[in-house]
Write a structure and sequence with these properties.
Elements: E1 5-9, H1 14-23, E2 30-32, H2 42-51, E3 54-57, H3 61-69, E4 77-80, E5 92-93, H4 102-108, E6 111-113, H5 117-131, E7 142-148, H6 154-161, E8 171-173, H7 183-190, E9 197-203, E10 209-216, H8 225-235, E11 242-244, E12 267-274, E13 279-286, H9 290-308
Parallel strand pairs: 1-2, 1-3, 3-4, 4-6, 5-6, 7-9, 11-12
Antiparallel strand pairs: 7-10, 8-9, 10-13, 12-13
Helix pairs in contact: 1-9, 4-9, 5-7
């Protein structure tokens, strides 16, 4: 039986290392990575990517575009883990739970763009509600999310884990110019016509995301927290990697731990409501290195490998 050849381009970055670790020991595929001396050799990279059945790009955006440009073999299928192609024509968005047909689209696609970490949680919460007409596409949304410092890549990991005397804050918000590169991706795949406000941050812990989106029911006439909850439950019924927790609207709510699903490919969605004040909080917890990056890439890879058989 043919074992598909999977080339990981950029396997020394945070996402690439995690993907490599998740694929170790599998006997249904062959892994190809380049030794350090050959990683920046254009001829060797071109040979490697054009010999693969599936190429996984774990590269900065510009390098990912360059890798796609050197593809000459039309049989090579690509999963791009960068943000270079997440809104590009001809690329299938790699969130299998987006709708009932998305997993099949990924399985048969030649070009798949892996979702960003923050967009995974935001789109998972918003897309079903917008599609069902419960949330207007032009609702004035604010999205707040805190990630572990590994979301900043290898440099951030080294800065936090090889500490010098430099001051490192326990929490820092960034993207304060309100022009974060993930916003177009969220807007496009959530089905929004108005640009959301997105405020991300890093905490002084390694990995895990907690993301929240507040809603005012007075701006959603005729919509209840129960309807929002039912919509998400229906959308993700039977989804292997998405959990929808029971609606919480009475008594003291438990705190959300951003690290609760670390080292998994799971995504946990929960709604918190205050009926007295007419407010709802949409929340998502997941691993920025799992469902937010390498876990999702392997999930998409498995769908594409199934499509080869």
């Amino acid at each position: 039986m043919h074992q598909p050849l999977v080339f990981i381009d950029g396997d020394q970055g945070t996402t690439g290392l995690q993907i490599h670790a998740r694929l170790q020991g599998r006997d249904d595929l062959r892994l190809l990575t380049l030794p350090e001396a050959e990683r920046k050799d254009p001829a060797r990279r071109s040979e490697a990517i054009n010999s693969a059945d599936i190429a996984l790009l774990c590269l900065p955006d510009e390098a990912a575009r360059e890798a796609v440009a050197i593809l000459r073999n039309p049989a090579v299928r690509v999963i791009d883990a960068s943000s270079a192609h997440r809104t590009a024509p001809g690329w299938v968005y790699g969130l299998p739970e987006l709708n009932a047909e998305q997993a099949e689209r990924i399985a048969t696609a030649t070009r798949v763009s892996n979702p960003g970490c923050y967009p995974t949680g935001a789109i998972a919460l918003l897309h079903p509600l917008v599609k069902a007409g419960l949330l207007p596409a032009d609702y004035p949304l604010s999205i707040h999310a805190i990630s572990g410092y590994s979301g900043g890549g290898r440099a951030a990991v080294e800065r936090h884990e090889q500490r010098s005397d430099d001051y490192l804050p326990a929490l820092q918000l960034y993207g304060l110019e309100l022009a974060h590169k993930h916003v177009p991706e969220i807007q496009r795949h959530a089905g929004l016509s108005a640009r959301p406000v997105f405020v991300p941050g890093y905490g002084d812990y390694r990995q895990g995301i907690v993301l929240s989106i507040p809603l005012q029911l007075r701006l959603l006439p005729g919509v209840s927290a129960e309807q929002l909850q039912a919509c998400l439950e229906q959308h993700y019924q039977g989804a292997q990697h998405v959990q929808v927790m029971p609606l919480h609207q009475h008594g003291a709510a438990a705190a959300l731990d951003p690290q609760a699903l670390n080292d998994s490919n799971d995504l946990r969605l929960a709604l918190y409501a205050n009926p007295e004040h007419g407010q709802v909080l949409l929340t998502a917890v997941f691993d920025n290195l799992g469902k937010g990056a390498s876990g999702a890439a392997v999930q998409n890879l498995d769908l594409m490998l199934a499509g080869l058989r």
